Amino acid sequence: MTPLPESIARSWQMAALSRELKSQPLARTVADTSLVLFRDEAGGAVALIDRCPHRNYPLSEGRLVDGTVQCPYHGWRFGADGACVDVPGCTLDGDERQRLAARPVEAREIHGAVLVRLQPGGPELPDLGPWGAADHDHFWWSQGVWRGRALDALENVLDPFHTNFIHDGIIRRSNRRIPVRLSVETGEDWIESIIEQPRPDMGWMSRMLEPPRDRSRTRLYSPTLVQARWEGPRGLTLCVTVFFTPVTPTTLAPFACFTTPKGRGPGWLKERAIRFFLEKVVAQDRHALARQLDNIERFGAPRFLQGPGDLLGARVAQLYQGQKIEPAREGPFDFEL
Ligand code: FES
Ligand SMILES: [Fe+2]
Questions:
Q1: Final residue before a domain boundary, out of 117, 149, 172
Q2: How far is the CA of 143 from the centre of ligand 2 (A)?
Q3: What domain count does the chain have?
């Protein structure tokens, strides 16, 4: 399988939920790189390459001592900047601390997400609007590690036409379609698909759960961050921000944060309802991505055609690879979904 593009290592990728950083070191793989995550004494999120520089033992199998991670093999300890702060049984002078250091990785924490950037110099996070805003309810839903290519997951989430089939009856229906108007907007490093429709989707989830809808917008920010918004006559009804973290070339870890305006019931109830209704949808997409990859592997390589509804064409792949695209506005085009 083709290796992950460098854009992944150069951008902020979500490695864990804040609440996963507890009293033990946490092992995570991001962009094919094994990391150990923990909190330093001040509570800041730390990421180091998960390899003890001494004899290559996984640091994540060690323990935390006063905000440092201790390797289980000989007990060396490493702080937030990777510097070695203790070699049990020996005296460490100042210069030795850097020579014996573990490799640190840039880490930051925002709105309950622990993000890492393996290589410096990539883009900063875009403005993600209501994500994390105090006047909204938010909850995280992390999805574990899926078998599938991150690029295919991005195409999936931006592609409405699969919802009539894979999610037949839940989101839309394969045998009862409604007319929609589809437009595309792009900036240099993002692409957005906008769907305007006169009626809610025909699936039972939309009909039971959703307030009136005017349009939905799904935007991909290069390389792997997606934000989808549903808007009704009174403004935003739901916003989902998803970090599609490539774990290896054939696995990914989706982390989704659901944001709703306060009101319309308590936050915990909305969380329960959304999880209940979406559980099946998520499982269907997860299954589809795995089957798609099985077959790509069986045939040796992907070979994709762009159909008449694939308005985004090759641009999702270009953004995934960190390439700039031409700013544009296209549509609206008439389809039935
Ligand atoms: S291998 Fe980690 S301290 Fe020796
Ligand atoms: Fe889907």
A1: 117
A2: 14
A3: 2
